[in-house]
C-alpha cells in the first residue's frame, strides 16, 4: 500500500463525525499514544494494589500509597495549569511521559529483582502525583490546539471514550497477565506504554502555538509545509501571547479570571459537587451494596461497574457524534440533575439488575456531559488561559475524590442507603443552584470568549 493509499484509508472513516479528528496527523498521534498509555495505567493500578497487599496485607498501606500520589497532584494542579499556558503543552506532556517511563522502569527492575519495598512505591507515588499535576493540564490544553473548534467535542469523546474503554478492559487483561507471568510484567508494560506515548508526542509537529487550527472548510491563513501541516501564522502567534507575568502573578490571574466569571464559577462548583458525590459511593458504596446488601459476588459487582462503563462510553460517543443542541445548557443541567436522582435511587434499588440499569443511565448522562462541557469550555476560553482553566476544572475532581472516599468509608457501614440518597441530593441541589444562577441561559447564549 502506498503512502497516498494509506492516507485515503484513514480519511474515509474520518467522514464519521466522531472519527473526524483522526484525519489530523498530530491528533491521531496523541490519541494513539495516550490510548497505549491508558492501557499501561490500568496495568499499573492492578499491579500496585497486588504488590502492596502482597507485601503488607494492609488496606491502610494501600491507601497511604494512593494518598502519597493524590496530595501532590492536588497541591500542584493549578501550577501545572500555569506552566501549560507558558510552555508548549506538547513539550510538557512529552517530558512528563519520559520521566514516568524512567521511574516505572526502575520500579520494574526492583520488582523483577525482588528488591521492591513499600517506601519505594510511596516515593514513586509522590513523584507521579507531581508529574500528573503537570501532565493533565498540558494534555487538556494540547488537544484544542490540534483540532478546529468544530471537532473539539469529537476529539474529547475519542479521548474520554478510549480512557473509559481502557479502564474497563485493562484491569482484566492486567490481572490475567499478572496471574500467568507475574507482577513484574505489569510494570514492564506500563514503562513501555509511557515510552510509546512519548515517541508519539515527539512526532507531533504542532501544539506549541496558542493559535487554534483552521476550520476544515476555511481558507488557510498560512502556507502548508511539505507534509500538509498548516504552518503557524507568526503574526497571529505573537499577537495571541500577552505580556508575561510572573508565575505567581499568572496563578493569581487564573484565579481571578476563572472564579470571576459567573459561568466558569458555576461549572467548577457543579463539577466539584459531582465528584464529591459520585466517587465515594461508587468506589466504596457499590462493593458494599453488592457484597453485603445484596449478598452477591464478584461477578455481580463486575456487572455494575461494566454497566456504568458501557453507559459512559455510549454517552461519550453520542456527545462526540451529534451537533451541540442550541439550548444545550438546559440539557446539561437536566442530565446532571437526572444523574443525581439516579444516584439516590441506587440506595433503594431492590436488586443488582435494577442497580445496573440505573448505573447504565447515569453513565450515559455523565459521559455526554463530560464531552460536551469540556469541549465548550475549551472553545470559549482564551488560548493563553486554557491551561489554568482546565486545571481548575480538574482540581475539583482531584481534591474531592479522596475526600469523598474517606467520607463514604466512614458512613457506609452505618447506613449505605442514606449515603447514596444524600450524595444524590448533593448533585441535585448543585444543579438547581446552577439553574437559579442562570447558568443554562448563559451557556446556551454565551458567544463571548472568557477574557482576563
Write the layout of secondary structure elements.
Layout: H1 3-11, H2 25-56, H3 59-75, H4 77-86, H5 89-112, H6 118-142, H7 152-180, H8 184-202, H9 234-240, H10 247-260, H11 262-293, H12 298-321, H13 328-346, H14 352-380, H15 386-411, H16 416-436, H17 439-445
Keywords:
17 helices, globular, mainly alpha, disordered C terminus, 452 residues
Question: What is the compact description of this entry?
Answer:
This protein is an all-alpha fold and 452 residues long. The chain has helices spanning 3-11, 25-56, 59-75, 77-86, 89-112, 118-142, 152-180, 184-202, 234-240, 247-260, 262-293, 298-321, 328-346, 352-380, 386-411, 416-436, 439-445.
The SSE order reads HHHHHHHHHHHHHHHHH
Mean pLDDT: 80
Q: Classify the beta-strand content into a percent band.
A: under 5%
Number of helices: 17
Counting DSSP E segments of at least 2 residues, the number of strands comes to 0
Low-confidence stretches: 6-14, 217-242, 446-452
Structural category is mainly alpha
C-alpha Rg (nearest Å): 22 Å
The largest sheet is: none
Shape: globular
Distance from N terminus to C terminus (CA atoms, Å) equals 51 Å
Helix percent band: over 70%
Amino acid at each position: 500500500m502506498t503512502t497516498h493509499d494509506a492516507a485515503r484509508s484513514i480519511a474515509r472513516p474520518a467522514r464519521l463525525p466522531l472519527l473526524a479528528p483522526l484525519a489530523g496527523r498530530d491528533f491521531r498521534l496523541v490519541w494513539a499514544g495516550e490510548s497505549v498509555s491508558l492501557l499501561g495505567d490500568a496495568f499499573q493500578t492492578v499491579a500496585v494494589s497486588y504488590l502492596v497487599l502482597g507485601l503488607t496485607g494492609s488496606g491502610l498501606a494501600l491507601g497511604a500509597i494512593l494518598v502519597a500520589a493524590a496530595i501532590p497532584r492536588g497541591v500542584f494542579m493549578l501550577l501545572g495549569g500555569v506552566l501549560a499556558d507558558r510552555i508548549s503543552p506538547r513539550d510538557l506532556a512529552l517530558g512528563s511521559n519520559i520521566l514516568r517511563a524512567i521511574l516505572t522502569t526502575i520500579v520494574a527492575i526492583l520488582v523483577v529483582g525482588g528488591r521492591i519495598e513499600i517506601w519505594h512505591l510511596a516515593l514513586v507515588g509522590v513523584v507521579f502525583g507531581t508529574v500528573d499535576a503537570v501532565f493533565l493540564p498540558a494534555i487538556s490544553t494540547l488537544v484544542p490546539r490540534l483540532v478546529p473548534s468544530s471537532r473539539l467535542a469529537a476529539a474529547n469523546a475519542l479521548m474520554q471514550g478510549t480512557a473509559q474503554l481502557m479502564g474497563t478492559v485493562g484491569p482484566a487483561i492486567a490481572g490475567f497477565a499478572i496471574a500467568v507471568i507475574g507482577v513484574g510484567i505489569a510494570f514492564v508494560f506500563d514503562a513501555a506504554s509511557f515510552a510509546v506515548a512519548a515517541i508519539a508526542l515527539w512526532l507531533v509537529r504542532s501544539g506549541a502555538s496558542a493559535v487554534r487550527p483552521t476550520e476544515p472548510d476555511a481558507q488557510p491563513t498560512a502556507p502548508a509545509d511539505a507534509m500538509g501541516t498548516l504552518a503557524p501564522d507568526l503574526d497571529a502567534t505573537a499577537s495571541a501571547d500577552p505580556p508575561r507575568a510572573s508565575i505567581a502573578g499568572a496563578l493569581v490571574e487564573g484565579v481571578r479570571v476563572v472564579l470571576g466569571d459567573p459561568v466558569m464559577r458555576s461549572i467548577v462548583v457543579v463539577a466539584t459537587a459531582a465528584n464529591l458525590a459520585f466517587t465515594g459511593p461508587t468506589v466504596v458504596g457499590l462493593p458494599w451494596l453488592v457484597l453485603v446488601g445484596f449478598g452477591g459476588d464478584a461477578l455481580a459487582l463486575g456487572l455494575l461497574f461494566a454497566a456504568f462503563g458501557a453507559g459512559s462510553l455510549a454517552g461519550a460517543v453520542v456527545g462526540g457524534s451529534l451537533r451541540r443542541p442550541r439550548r444545550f445548557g438546559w440539557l446539561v443541567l437536566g442530565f446532571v440533575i437526572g444523574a443525581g436522582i439516579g444516584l439516590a435511587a441506587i440506595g433503594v434499588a431492590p436488586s443488582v439488575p435494577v442497580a445496573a440499569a440505573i448505573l447504565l443511565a447515569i453513565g450515559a448522562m455523565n459521559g455526554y456531559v463530560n464531552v460536551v462541557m469540556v469541549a465548550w469550555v475549551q472553545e470559549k476560553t482564551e488560548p493563553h488561559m486554557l491551561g489554568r482553566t482546565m486545571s481548575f476544572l480538574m482540581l475539583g475532581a482531584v481534591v474531592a475524590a479522596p475526600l469523598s472516599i474517606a467520607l463514604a468509608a466512614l458512613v457506609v457501614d452505618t447506613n449505605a442507603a442514606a449515603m447514596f440518597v444524600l450524595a444524590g441530593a448533593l448533585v441535585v441541589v448543585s444543579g438547581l443552584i446552577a439553574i437559579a444562577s442562570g447558568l443554562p441561559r448563559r451557556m446556551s447564549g454565551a458567544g463571548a470568549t472568557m477574557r482576563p
